[in-house]
Each structure stands twice: as structure tokens, then as C-alpha cells.
Please model this.
Amino acid sequence: MSGGELLLTTFNGLSFAGLLFLVASGFTLIFSLMGVLNLAHGTFYLWGGYIGLVTLAATGSWLLALLAGALGVALGGGVLERLVFRRVRGMELNEVLLSVGISLVLADLALAQFGGDSLTIAPPAALAGSIELGGLVVPRFRLAVIVAAVLVMIGLAVLLRRTRVGAIIRAGVDDEEMLDALGLNVRRVAAAVFVLGALLAGASGVVGGVFFGVYPGADAEMLLFALVVVVVGGLGSLHGAVVGSVVVGLVYSFGVALAPDLLYFVLFGPMLLVLVVRPRGILGGRL
Amino acid sequence: MSDRNRNVIGVVVLVVAAALLPYIVGEYWVGIGTEAAIFAIVAIGLNVLIGLGGLVSVGHAGLFAASAYATSLAQQRLDLDFVTSGLVAITVTLLITAVFAVAAVRTTGMYFLMITLAAGMLVWGLAHRWSSLTGGENGSVSGVRPGGLTRYYQYYWVVLAVLVVVALLLWAFQRSPAGMRVRATRDSAARMTSLGYSPAGQRFVAFLVSGAVTGVAGVLYAGYYPVVSPSTAHLSMSILFMLMVIAGGSAVFLGPAVGAVVLTVLRAAVSAETARWATVMGVILVAVVLFAPEGITGTVRDRLRPRRDPDPPVAVREPVTAQGQR
Amino acid sequence: MRARALAAAGLLVALAACAPTAARDVDVNRTTGPLTIGFVDSLSGPLAGAGQDMLQGAQLWLAEHGGAMSGRPVELLVEDDHGSTETGVQVTKRLVEARGADLVVGPLAGNVGVALGRYVTTTEVPLVYPIPTSDVFVHENYPTVFPVTGTAPQFNAPLGDWAVANGHKRVLTICSDYAFGQQVCGGFADRFRASGGELTAQLWPPLGSSDFAPFISQLQRTPADAVFVGLIGADSVKFLKAWKDFGMTGKLTLLGSDPGFDQAVLRGVGADAVGLVSIGHFAEGRDNPLTRRFSDAFQAKYKKLPSYYAASGYLSLDWTARAIEANGGKVGAAADFVKVMRTISYPDSVFGPIRVDERGQPVYTTYLREVGRGPGNLPWNTVTASFPDVGATGGLSYEEYLARPVFSRDYQGGRP
Model:
């Protein structure tokens, strides 16, 4: 692999990692507080993309599309949490099974509504086209994704570490009974976290829709990626999500360039290995 | 008449009724019945893990497909007949099951689920990419049936007979010391350890039994369809199997079989009318989890008589810690 | 208890000796009454867009012909195989065994096609296969299958000769890594090398690849001066987008395969597609009354220009109707029906002139196409050159062709 190709593949890996982080951060956040894998996360991503697509077509504004996708899914997630997930709170396996059922319905409804074609979201005019970066020609939007991911990471870290809300969330992870004793409404906090996770998923759906497209099956693909990311990086850890995203993003990018045949094994093999050898993941444990 | 005799007669009546199916409906629905019977075998096998072992696997389609592929390849490449290729396939499936099991049995709950998910998808990936062996997404030619029993209704009776035999064997297993140990491990791994048994070891046994049964089903499946393709190993198939067990009811022995029949027939009926089968499946899963975690048979059983047997279904169990240990 | 059990067992054995009712009760020799045509298609999954087109082409034909063939009203039973081999077999079984189909048109997905080819040989139902089939259908014998538009490698072969003749002696191929894509590539690669071209590398992105950026980086450093694009549907759209995003426009010549720059792809690409060169057996912008009428009618009804999938759906029904007419209004025995299909030829059609060769394989005129601006300024394929009489064997005799393996990733033409 030449120097230029190496750099480009690394760049691609990092921009994919950016998208992965946007998806996985919501996923790991929900897991960290509720102890449950929300397997409907992929369909939240998908619906974010479709809502964004429709909004863009109606208004022509990418920003509105992003907001609509994020808020629409956040709202939907909130409703689902209130009506359905809340009823099985505390029963882990039930929560997972429930999320599977919901994902089946959401994915199928999207197919019924939007059809089977693969659609793409046009990037905002300001971020369209390519830019030259030290000899490399790369799409502006992909660069923006990296920047956005870093900003979200900083934002989440600040939220968790420096704010009262964040302290409550982290406390919720550690000691639920204590929170209850202090009179803080655990249910409210859990719901808020779920909504935040859904918001991130919806937003990443619009972002992903630009360079991956929105199509039936994108939900399952993204969910599997998110799963690999959080398992490798560490379930329930924000830093783990960062590490996991970068690892998976780079592995994917180099894997596709060097050995596209073995892609599945390159992704799932390490996941299996981590689960067996060190289930906590590289940085598993504390949020 | 004693309870037990009543149960036995009930089962015999069911079997006879099932055997009479070809006289009531045409080839298509007998075919659906064949599929339902094959999936019933998978479901009661999967229940050894879910119901007896308390371990939810979403990777069983990987084992099922591995068996079907092995059967097909043994017939195509080695020119073996139905029975011999079947034995080869079951052996291969057991080996693959052992690999799955080694990876998974030190965990329970969420982690067990994720490991089986990854393992199942790895099989799917292999089926897809190793085209020189599996034919890629064109699939591998299959459809060989036991000599002299190739007509659709004859094959249906073969599958039904195998289902009865497998069910009897699993029933015996459940009540054997090995089966009791698996159940005890589900209820309290700590107690088993203090008694000198390895929980992972018991789970390993359960997994192997489950894998063997799934292997048998895979052989029959290869005989039913003209081709085995990678979609048979996909996660969506594993989810369908899991749904059959849970919707049918994991606490009653025949519950998963009931679930398999109901869902297979429902799938055929719904798909004939609408493209929204996935939505139906999702709604069923949500409804079962929220309103009837005991599944069809569990709920019926509870209505008929108060529950004496303290054997809660898998869905309602004490939460596991994040590390999946107990 | 035991006596009763024995009696039950005896009854079962006795029953087992009697055979239940016969499987199918469809009278294929009817010449009146409704005609039930099963239509197996992929209406979800990565090929859904093409699947939709194929169905709409068929429905357009029915609308133009009063929904009838030889005076018999047609009942079109549409089934979705989701692109899955298993589902495809299941739904076809349903059509044949439960829904009384007289014949089946379809499928779209190549993997389903191969499975159905094998399945229908065990039934009494003919399969009318609308879109290019796997090469397997030439090598193996399927007397009850009629391939309306030839095989996957067939129409890509002339591009191989043309590329060399027009100065593109070093080419890299990028094709979808599944049977159909591999055969499309093989068709091109075989004739390209036979004409003296050099294949510098072959890239194989998996079907349904989300991201083509990694492949672009490999393309940036290639010594080849042209790229053969054998990608399908949404993958081709994504590839072309990445091509533009990474500043590759104009750096290398893109040579499109038959499916690669088909209308189904052009729709997703838009104005950026103008100028793209490809090979194809259908050109929606072909300056010909039959093609123009079809394109106009399709666009008026479905608000988009037709792809070759749409044209295939349309032609399949037309060809079936002519065969039934020639057969006196009946379908007849499956193998006989296919024989009748083979006797029909088209001096001109929405595709162009078509005839059937001695092995029952259709022979088409193939076009060198360039994307121009069509009605409503939408991109469409126009014809810049014609290659008449393109058959299934890429110019070889059948003996030579059948002596070689089926095209696959490992066999891309030349001496095996």
C-alpha cells in the first residue's frame, strides 16, 4: 500500500469511526443506565435517516432535516419508553426481547412506507464537494463527520462529568437504591437517557444517510457495527465507545481495502474473542 | 384416569391427527406442515437451552444451517445416501456446537446472547463467502430424500416420526440426572459449584444436546428444500426460532413445538395476504413479552389449573449482573 | 390401553398404504377461462428498485392489452422473494401448489433464479425468466425454463472488443462479488483478453456494500486507464457518488457494464451521469418507434424512465402472450410450451431485433450507449453504435463454450 493510499484509508477509517461513534454513543449510554441492549437502536438510526430525507425534500434545509431526524426519533423513543419499555424495567432479558420485537415492527413499517430503493441524503451546500488535505482529495462532509463526532464526544463527556444531570446519570449506574433513597426519580432519569440515546441515533441516521444512504437493511448493518464497537471498546463506557469506534472504523477501512472477502470475520472474530476472553471490553466498566 | 395417562392419550391423539393431515389438505399445506414439524424439532431442541438451561441463544440458525449444508455437501460431494449423509451432518454440527459452546458457556444472560449472536452470524458469513464450498448465495443443491419415501406426504410422515422420537428422547433427557443438573444450574449456579459441579460443564452438556437436535432438524430441512442457502443461517432465522420457543412457552415441554407450528402456519397464511409478516412477528414478540411471558401453553396451563410447579419461564427471571455472572 | 394403541398403530399403517389426493389440479390444456400467471420478484432488499421496475413493465403490458392473452383474462399473482433463495422457493411452491399458477414469470435475483430453475424441473410449470440468467442455464439443461433476455455475460462481451479497439488496452474491473456480478465481469474480461487487452486488477466489493471509499483509494493508484464497472443497482449509484466525491471524475474512463449504468442506476445519480459510456441490450433513449413508444408510455404511467428490468417485464409478457396464441390459447405441457417460445422471433421490439438460436438461447443486438439528456432533462441511455447478433457464447461455438467452466470469480474467461 502506498503512502497516499495508506493516508486515504486511514482517513476513511476515521470518518467511518466518527459515524460509528455517533451511533454507538447513544447505544452505550442506554446500556450503561438501563443495563440493557436496545436492539432497536438500528431502526432508530434508520428512521432518523428517513425522517431527515423527507424533511430535506420538503424544506430544502439540511439543518432542518438533521433536527427533524434527531427530534423525531427522540420523541418516538420517548413514547416507546413510556408505553412499552417502562413496563419491563429491571427485567433485562425481557427488555432485550422487547427491543427486538420493536425493531422488527419499525423496520418493516419503514419498508412499507418508503419502499426498497436505496436513497441518499444530499449534504448541506457548505459541506458539499471535496477539499484537498495535504495531497489527499477527500469529501468535505466526511471531514465534517470527524469534527462532529469529536464535538459530540466532548459534549457528552462534559454532560456526564461536569453537570448535575450527568452526575445523576452516573449515579444511576452505580447505585439505584441510593438514588431512590435520595428521592431522585430514577424512572425519569432512565427515560431521559433513553431519549438522549434515541436523539443521537436519529441524528446519526441523517449523517449516515449522506455517505452511506438510507435503505432497508441499513438498520441491521448499523446495529451490528454498534454492537461490535461497544463490545470491543467496553460496554457502558463512553471512552470505550471512542476506542471501539476508532478500532472498528480503521479495521473496517483497511479490511475492505486489503481483504474484502474476510470482512465478516475481521469484524465478528474480534468481537467473539473479546466476549470470550474479556467480556468487559477494552475499557469496560465505568462510564 | 390418572393425569399422566390423560396426557399420554392427548399426545397420541395429537400425533394421529397430525398424521392425517395429507388426507385433509393438499400438497402445499402438507409442505407447510413438514416445515412446521422440522421447526418444532429445532424449537424443542432450543428449549433445552432456553427453558431448561435458562440461556437464550440467538445463534441457532447457524447450527441449523451448518447441518443442512453438511447434509447437502455430503450428498453432492461424497455421494452418500440420506441416512449416512445425515449422520455425517449431525457429527459436523456437534463439532461446530462444541465450538459455539466453548465460547459461550462461561456466561449467561446478555453476554450469552451476544456470543451466540456473533457465532451464528459468523456461520452466515462463512456460508456466504466460502463460495467454493457452499456455493455462495446460489446455495448448495439438496432435496435428497430417503429412498422410496420421496413423495411429499411420505416425507411429511418421516419428519413427523422423527419429531416424535426426538421429543421422547428429550423428555427422557429432561428427567434424567443430567437434565436435572442442567435445570439446577439454571436455578443456582452457585449451589451447583458448592456441590462440586461445574456450571459451565452443565451448560456445555445442554448446548451439545441442543445442537444435536438442531442437527437432526437441519438434515430433514435439506431433504425438504431443493437448495440450502445462506439466509438459513441468518440472524432473522435465529430470532424466529427464539420467538417460537418463547411464544409457545418455554416452561411446558411441548410449548416450543406449539409455537413452531403456530408461527410457521401463521407465516404462510400471513405472507399469502400481505408483505407485512415481519411486523406481525414483532407485534407477537412484544405482546408475548408484555402480556404473556409464559407463552401460549404457559398461559393456557395457568388458566386451566393453578401452578404447582415452581418453574418460571425464562422471561421472568432474576436480573443478571452486567458481567453476565450469577 | 395396549389394545387400543395397537389398533391405532394398525390404522396408521393402513392409512400409510393409501396415497392422499393428487397434488395439482390445474388443467394446462384449457384454451378458455382465466390464465393464472405467477410473478416472482424481489420487492424488498437491495434489488427492490429493479424489482419494482420489472413488475411495472409487466403491468404496463397488461394495461395496454386489456389485461388478457388470447382472449383469456390474466390474473397476475405477484410474490415477493425478498432476494432470498429460500423465500423464493417457498413463494413459488405456493404459486404452483396452492394458487394454481399455469406458468411462472420471474425471478429477479440470480440466486433465486438458479434455485427455481432446479425446482421447476420437478413440477409441470414452465418458468419464463425475464432478465439475464446465470451462465448455469446454458451449461445445464432446463427444458422447462425460457430465458427471455439471455445470460449475464452475454451482453458485456462486445465491450471487451470495443475497449481494445478504442485504445483502452489496460483495464481494471470493479464488479459486485456475487454470481451475477461475477458473470457480468467474466463476459467482459473474456473477450477483452481475447482481443489482446490487459486486465490489471479485479476488485470485488460485496453486493450491498455500504461504502466505496476504500475501493476508490485502490483505483487512485492503478496503472490502468479505464475501469469496467460491473456493479448492480444501489451499489453502482454509491460507487459513482464516491467517484465524484473523491475527485476522480475525468481521471480514468469509466466503461459501464449492462446493468452498471442502466436507467435504474442513472435515476439515482442524476445529472452527473451525463456522458457515461456503457454497453447494453436495452437503451431507453434508442431512436426507434417501438422503444420510444414504450419509454413514453412507461414514463407517463410511472413518472420515471424505464430500465432494462422494466423492458424485460414487458417483453416477458409479450413473448408469453405470443406463445400462448401460437399454441392455440393454451399453455400446454411445460416443455412443449418452452419449445413454442423458442419458435418466436422479433424483427424489432422495445429492445431491438431478437431471434432464438438452435440451443434455445435468445440472440440480441447490443448497443454501445452514452448517457444524454432525455425528456424532462433526465439522464438516459442513447445509442452510439450497434453490435448485431450477440449470442450466449461470446462468439465461440457451443462445443467450445460448454467445454469451459461456468463464469465465476475464479473463472473469468480464457483458457481454464
Summary: Residues 177 and 183 of chain B are 10 Å apart (CA to CA). Chain B touches chain A through 46 residues (CB under 8 Å). The first helix of chain B runs from residue 3 to 19. Residues 316-326 of chain B have pLDDT under 50 and may be disordered.
